C-alpha cells in the first residue's frame, strides 16, 4: 500500500548530478582571507568554535560525522595556505540546541546546528540581544515530522494521545519534540498546559524518568525514540509523521562572524556538502562511524540515517521547510518562548548557493530521499524501488544490507534466517515512517496478494486508522506474522 509520505523516488541521474556538484564544491572556496589574533610566530591564528549535538544524529553532516571525517579542518587548511592564517576548530558537544544558542549570544560559538524550534528561538534571541544569527543550511529533515515521537514504557496501557490526560509527560521545552507534542495534542483537542503535567527535562533525564515511573510518556527527537525502543525500554505511542508537518535541523551562524569570515562559512558548508556526499555514498559505513563516535547502537543510527532512513539529508533551504518554520512560530509564541520571528530575514542561502554551484536549483526542487532502499529482492524477486514498501534487513556479521520489495517479503527472509537478523527495517503503511520490523505493530490482510499480506505500523493508533479503512483486516503479533509467512 502506497503511503502519502513517500510518493517520489530519486532517479540515479539526479543523485549523480548532486554528487558531481558536491565533488566540485571544494574548488569554490573564496580566496579572501579573514582576520585573527597574532600568534607567537607573528602569524595569525583563528579558532572557529562549532556547537553541535553528537547524539542528535540527523545533524551529523554538520557535527559528528563531519568531525570524524576531518573535512572542515582540511578545508580550513587549504584556506589557510592562501590567506596565511592558521585555523583551529573547537568542537563543543551539547545535548540540545538551547545551550548552543546561549553560547552564540555570548560570542563563544560561531557555528551551531539544532532543530527547527531551537532555530527559531536562536533567531529570536539574536534579534533581542542585538547579536543576529543566520540560517545557512539544512542537515536532515522529514517532510511529515517522523523524526519526533512520543514513547511510553513497554508495559504501558496507554494507547493514544487521549490517554495522556492527567499524565506526566517529559520533553525538552522549546525543542522540536516539544513542538510536535504541543501540535499533536492541539490536534487531538488536548491542552498541553491544562490537561497533563508537562515536565521540562533534558532527553537523558526524561529517559530515566520514564524508566523509574517519574514520567508516563516521553516526547523526544531523534535518536531517543529509536534508541529506547531498540533497547526494549519503550514503545511508540505517537508517530510524529501522523502530524504531517515537516521537521528539520539546520546550521546557524553568527551574522557578525559570517560578515567578518565569509570564507570560513564557505569552508564549513563545503565540508558539510562533502560529508553529505559521503553519507549518501556509504550509508552503512557512515552509520557505523557515527555509532562509534557517539556510543549509539549502529542499528539505531542506520534506522534514521541509512538508505531510506527517517532523515533525508539535503542541505538546501527548501520552501516547504521554511514554510514549516513559519507555521512553528505561533506555537512558540503561544508558549511565550518568542514574540515573533522573521523567518525570511533569518534565512540566508547566499553562502550555500555559492559553494553548491549550478546544481542548487534542481536539488532545491527535489524532496525525494537521495539514498532510497534499492536492490534485488532475494525472496520475492524484482527490484525494491518503491519507497512506500521497500524494506531492508541487516544480518549479523555482515557489512551490507539486503533489500526487499515489501515488508511481507522481509518477514519471509527473517523466517528463513532465525536468530541471524541483526535488524529489519520496514516503512509504516500509513505514514511511511521507517521502523524496526520486530517492534512494529502488524496487521494482516487475508485477501491481499501474498507479497502484501502483512502491513507494519509504528504505533497502535496508526494501525487502527489503517484497519478502519480496510475491512477484513486484523491486528497480529510480529511472531504470528513470522509464523504465518509462507
TrEMBL record:
Classification via InterPro entries: SsuA/THI5 (IPR015168)
All residue ranges annotated as the SsuA/THI5-like domain in the record: 93-286
Region feature Disordered, mapped onto this chain: 376-396
Membrane-crossing residue ranges in chain numbering: none
UniProt-listed PANTHER family: ABC TRANSPORTER SUBSTRATE-BINDING PROTEIN, ALIPHATIC SULFONATES-BINDING PROTEIN-RELATED
UniProt-recorded name of the protein: ABC transporter substrate-binding protein
